[in-house]
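Quick one: Outer membrane protein beta-barrel domain-containing protein from Algoriphagus confluentis, structure tokens please.
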Amino acid sequence: MKKIWILILFFGISTWAFAQEGQEKEEFSPQIRVALITANSHVPQAFEGERKVAVIPAWGFDVDYFFHPRWSVALQADLKLQSFEVEREGALLERSYPFSLAPVIHYHFKRHWSVFVGPGWEFEKNENLYFWKIGSEYSFEMSETFEIALNLAYERKEEVYDSWTFGIAFNKRIWKKEKE
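--- reply ---
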């Protein structure tokens, strides 16, 4: 009799667990989210004339496509709002309002917390640079379609310079696939 109760309990728990898993899959629909970001970039190697510049203001824009409950791809862009110089092999390289573009992949390991990584390009009139970007974002849900998020990203721009960017993002879901 004890074995029967154990089997019933095991079957009940298994059925409940799989039902919950199936329910999560049913609730997910692909969606697109856009974000406007206000940020500050810390560039330890930056100069403006003789003055060392540590923090550079920036604006950013992201478009994310959620194709899975835990995965999304995004196109991240930002514009530094100040010119600066960095040292490269003993010479100064001017960066005049550089614009960066990076396709990244997000892994959402918690409902509102993700990590991302991807390659990118910094476009600037003097010289374009290739970089790798890695970062994390934590969002606070304000409504079903609107979030405010904090993000932190590190960029390594060729062997020229590094930057740490901290931003506040205003995320808005603009599309969600309707269930059939």
